[in-house]
Design the sequence.
């Protein structure tokens, strides 16, 4: 059992609260992905779990044991950083063996474990090389090998792939999925990459300004973001946001008014007190569809062809901000053309001024 239990965990640097009191339960063997904008506290949370940063308050337990005051080496955790931090004067084999040597593991066992981890990460042929003679992807594999060689109960990974090119990232992403299956260890993985988050995670935790805003299965978080911050963090290209006024609500949902007066139907439930109040309407690019009488209008300012699909960036039309709409790959669009789009009420998101999403239901009395 190597579940991680975080209760009331808090971090302050002087007056600044970097992590507000946080509770989080990570299941034994779970792959949890932490996402959120730069500076929101992801690394700080990870470093506290690793024991590299002292909490200001709260506790951490791993496998049922309180490790809040335990030394990093006594927690059964290993951490992989964005920069590989390998020892340049040691060979790959010596780099991987290093933590075992420090822990006083017998030589024969070290050799066996290094060989087994090297095989798992496809490093067999590179064991005698020095780090400088390796590619970025190979170096990161060595630092992962060094982290897993001690059979950590919990593996912490802080943007481990962000220094690699796209092709290597894709390959390493598959390797992480495989590694997780093979090791069965609990993994907490920080990334800015949407694909990594959506494909690797059992659950995603979205952070914003020192708080965990939402934790859930990747698709649930994608389909039903609980706050504006979560809606902003998940999805690429990101969700479109339009400042609206709440116009009317009935059993079927809520109507909102765009800045130019056009009305959009949503499936949100708002309290009657919200009538006439401002709100933020959110629509993902793939949910805007071309419609001659659609409420969203704009002039095509940028057209991106990705092959199987395209993105049209529309300048100030019905909305004050630019809108991005996803189009089928075969559709050609000329710059400067004025287009109209509509959205199915079920595919809209409506956020209150405090950033909370209104529930997708009928109007509440
Ligand atoms: N030692 C420190 N002293 C003071 N402030 C710190 C310290 N370490 C981190 N911070 C601040 O804490 C906040 C959270 O930092 P953290 O490194 O956890 O962010 P992050 O979510 O990992 O960001 P990124 O995605 O850029 O890596 C930032 O505002 C940072 O400036
Ligand atoms: Mg960080």
Sequence:
């Amino acid at each position: 059992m190597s579940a991680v239990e975080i209760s009331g965990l808090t971090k302050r640097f002087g007056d600044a609260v970097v992590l507000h009191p946080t509770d989080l339960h990570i299941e034994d063997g779970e792959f949890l992905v932490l996402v959120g904008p730069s500076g929101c506290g992801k690394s700080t949370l990870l470093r506290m779990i690793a024991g590299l940063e002292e909490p200001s308050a709260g506790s951490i337990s791993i496998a049922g044991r309180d490790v809040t005051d335990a030394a990093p080496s006594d927690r059964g955790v290993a951490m992989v950083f964005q920069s590989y931090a390998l020892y340049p004067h040691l060979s790959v084999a010596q780099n991987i063996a290093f933590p075992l040597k420090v822990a006083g593991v017998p030589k024969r066992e070290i050799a066996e474990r290094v060989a087994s981890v090297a095989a798992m990460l496809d490093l067999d042929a590179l064991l005698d090389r020095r780090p400088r003679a390796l590619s970025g992807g190979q170096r990161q594999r060595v630092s992962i090998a060094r982290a897993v060689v001690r059979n950590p109960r919990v593996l912490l990974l802080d943007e481990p792939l962000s220094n690699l090119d796209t092709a290597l990232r894709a390959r390493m992403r598959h390797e992480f999925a495989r590694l997780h299956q093979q090791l069965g260890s609990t993994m907490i993985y920080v990334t800015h990459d949407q694909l990594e988050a959506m494909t690797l995670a059992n659950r995603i935790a979205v952070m914003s300004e020192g708080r965990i805003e939402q934790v859930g299965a990747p698709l649930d978080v994608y389909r039903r973001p609980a706050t504006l911050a979560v809606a902003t963090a998940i999805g690429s290209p990101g969700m479109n946001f339009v400042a609206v006024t709440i116009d009317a609500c009935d059993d079927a949902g809520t109507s909102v008014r765009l800045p130019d007066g056009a009305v959009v139907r949503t499936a949100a439930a708002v309290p009657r007190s919200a009538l006439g109040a401002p709100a933020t309407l959110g629509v993902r690019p793939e949910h805007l569809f071309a419609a001659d009488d659609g409420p969203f209008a704009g002039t095509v300012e940028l057209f991106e062809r990705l092959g199987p699909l395209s993105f049209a960036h529309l300048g100030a039309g019905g909305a004050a901000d630019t809108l991005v709409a996803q189009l089928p790959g075969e559709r050609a669009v000329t710059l400067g053309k004025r287009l109209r789009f509509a959205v199915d009420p079920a595919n809209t998101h409506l956020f209150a001024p405090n950033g909370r999403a209104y529930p997708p239901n009928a109007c509440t009395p």
